[in-house]
Write a structure and sequence with these properties.
Number of helices: 12
Structural class: alpha/beta
Strand order of the largest sheet: 2-8-7-6-5-3-4
CATH superfamily of the largest domain: Type I PLP-dependent aspartate aminotransferase-like (Major domain)
Pfam family, one: Aminotran_5
Enzyme class: transferase
Shape: globular
CATH topology of the largest domain: Aspartate Aminotransferase, domain 2
CATH class of the largest domain: Alpha Beta
EC number: 2.8.1.7
Distance between the termini: 33 Å
Bound molecules: pyridoxal-5'-phosphate
Cofactor: pyridoxal 5'-phosphate
Number of domains: 2
Radius of gyration: 22 Å
Helix content: 25-40%
Protein name: cysteine desulfurase
């Protein structure tokens, strides 16, 4: 099989070889395989030390305190914990109809949790983004009510790559006295993120979006002021009672190692990928009927989402077999519904169907980008001629 260029870094990333090496040291008898909760022997102590080193690495990446980071199975679980945990605590505190403010273009982990909470008596406001895919801070302000228990807005969108102004949104929440949760699965490890500077209460993270393994994530809960979050997983009181379950040492070490690598390479990677994405976009500018979805510049360094007019989306994808790209989100492309994110931006169904999400990452280079541009220049006119 010839090589397929991987251009789907927003969907998942390959584990960095250094991360894989660190993880492999945590599995066998010779390695750090013990249960981090075993207090009576060195296998346990060593595993606990490895877990705490990783916690320090991740906390440092987002400028959090060690005690503010809990391990979960991924951003999906962290999102569930934030929404269901705050909702349950608000109920307990006497809020009969807890109100949640979120946006219509959140990840399904947020939207489906909100839908579920509506069946449990929550009221949810789904904010509409602007045409360029951003959640406007004023719109958040207007949506907050007396019974609002949480605002949940994503940092960067996983389909179009746009980055919300979280500092501004968090300031509005602060002055209204409402806690804010941020799904940062697409930004942690990719762009600078400082939970203190942004003034965030709760944050969701996922290792496999920044060259760590799948099945491990983290939940940041600010210590002071602290928002009450009821645990959703019980048994054993791990992670300060917030999330029970034996800690997956190898996964956690992998996430910590990925965080340390990200921290050290962040600023150069942001520059390199921004330049690469801008070069790609400008090389495509002479193709007629091509539009970028989402804000032109307020976006993740490696993320581009484009719509190509007058071609069939399916045909377009089939004509580019040498690239691993996606149309719409990976999570929704199993169905043939046009992407709900692109629809929320006001795109007609035809343009939403003929959209491509091209996402570059650590192992992408100029050659990959040049090849893609060449192929698109060939394919688009050919598809239009055959359709005419
Ligand atoms: C990938 C992603 C998730 C889900 O993370 P998992 O760790 O795969 O569960 C949630 N939110 C956003 C924005 C994502 O990109």
């Amino acid at each position: 099989m010839s090589r397929v260029v991987y251009f789907d870094y927003l969907s998942s990333t390959p584990v960095d070889p250094r991360v894989a090496e660190a993880m492999s040291q945590c599995l066998t008898l010779e390695g750090t395989f013990g249960n981090p909760a075993s207090r009576s022997h060195r296998y346990g102590w060593e595993a606990e030390m490895a877990v705490e080193t990783a916690r320090q690495q991740l906390a440092s990446l987002i400028n959090a305190d060690l005690r503010e980071v809990a391990w979960t199975s991924g951003a999906t679980e962290s999102d569930n914990l934030a929404l269901k945990g705050v909702f349950a605590a608000a109920r307990e505190a006497g809020n009969a109809t807890p109100h949640i403010v979120t946006s219509a273009i959140e990840h399904k982990a947020i939207l489906d949790s909100c839908r579920y909470l509506e069946t449990q008596g929550a009221a949810v406001t789904y904010l509409h983004p602007s045409e360029d895919g951003l959640v406007q801070p004023e719109v958040v302000r207007d949506a907050i009510q007396g019974n609002t228990c949480l605002v949940s807005v994503m940092h960067a969108n996983n389909e179009i790559g746009t980055i919300n102004d979280i500092a501004e949104i968090a300031a509005i929440c602060r002055s209204a006295g409402v806690p804010i949760h941020v799904d940062a699965a697409q930004t942690v490890g990719k762009i600078p993120l400082d939970v203190k500077a942004l003034d965030i209460d709760l944050l969701s993270m996922s290792a496999h979006k920044f060259y760590g393994p799948k099945g491990i994530g983290a939940f940041y809960q600010r210590r002071s002021p602290k928002v009450a979050v009821n645990a959703q997983m019980h048994g054993g009181g791990h992670e300060r009672g917030l999330r029970a379950g034996t800690l997956a040492t190898h996964q956690i070490v992998g996430m910590g190692c990925a965080a340390a690598i990200a921290q050290e390479s962040l600023s150069t990677e942001v520059q390199r990928l921004t330049a690469l994405r801008e070069a790609l976009w400008s090389s495509l500018s002479d193709i007629e009927g091509l539009t970028m979805n989402g804000h032109l510049t307020q976006r993740l360094p490696g993320a581009l989402n484009i719509s190509v007019s007058d071609v069939e989306g399916e045909a377009l994808l089939l004509s580019l077999p040498e690239f691993a790209i996606s149309t719409g989100s990976a999570c929704t492309s199993a169905s043939l519904e046009p992407s709900y994110v692109l629809r929320a931006l006001g795109l007609p169904d035809a343009l939403a169907h003929s959209s491509l999400r091209v996402s570059l990452g650590r192992f992408s280079d100029e050659n990959d980008v040049r090849l893609f541009s060449e192929r698109l220049h060939e394919v688009v006119p050919r598809l239009r001629r055959s359709a005419a």
